């Protein structure tokens, strides 16, 4: 079992797709009228026709990156603001509509070192 996709509601689908490509480094594709950002074997569905975006909340999803330190540097170099950076472990960014996206080094929440 796995999560197949999440959906982001945005004001301008084209601008958001370019943000994901140019700033975050993800490819995208269209299937019929639907836009999909490719994240490994999973997807982010980008839509602008299902209501109004709800940005600037803590609602978010997380994408694992093995290269988290190098990726953070690449984003900074492209002018992307990193939020709550835990260097070498995780950070957040906001898209053009304020949707929060976390990037995190892989970890196992069930591992004994992560139990409180």
**Arithmetic mean pLDDT:** 91
Biggest pleated sheet: 4 strands, mixed
- Return the structural class: alpha/beta
**Architecture, according to CATH?**
Roll
How large a portion of the residues is in β-strands, by DSSP E? 25-35%
Query: How many H/I helical runs?
Result: 2
Q: What gyration radius follows from the Cα positions, in whole Å?
A: 15 Å
**Global shape:** globular
For the record, what is the CATH homologous superfamily label?
2,3-Dihydroxybiphenyl 1,2-Dioxygenase, domain 1
Query: What is the CATH third-level topology name?
Result: 2,3-Dihydroxybiphenyl 1,2-Dioxygenase, domain 1
| Uncertain segments | none
User: Based on DSSP secondary structure assignment, what is the total number of beta strands?
Assistant: 8
**From N to C, what is the helix and strand string?**
EHEEEEHEEE
Please identify the top-level CATH class. Answer: Alpha Beta
Count of the separate structural domains: 1
The CA-CA distance between the termini, in Å, is 26 Å
| Sequence of strands across the biggest β-sheet | 1-4-3-2
Percent of residues in helices: 10-25%
Distinctive features:
116 residues, alpha/beta, 2,3-Dihydroxybiphenyl 1,2-Dioxygenase, domain 1, 4-stranded mixed β-sheet, 2 helices, 8 strands, 18% helix, 34% strand, globular
């Amino acid at each position: 079992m796995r999560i197949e996709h999440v959906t982001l509601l945005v004001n301008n689908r084209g601008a958001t797709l370019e943000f994901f490509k140019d700033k975050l480094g993800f490819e995208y594709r269209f299937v019929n009228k639907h836009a999909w950002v490719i994240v490994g074997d999973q997807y982010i569905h980008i839509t602008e026709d299902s209501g109004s975006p709800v940005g600037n909340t803590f609602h978010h999803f997380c994408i694992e990156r093995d290269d988290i330190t190098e990726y953070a540097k690449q984003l900074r170099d492209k002018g992307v603001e990193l939020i709550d950076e835990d260097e070498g472990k995780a950070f957040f960014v906001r898209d053009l509509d304020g949707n929060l996206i976390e990037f995190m080094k892989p970890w196992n929440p069930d591992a004994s070192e992560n139990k409180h």
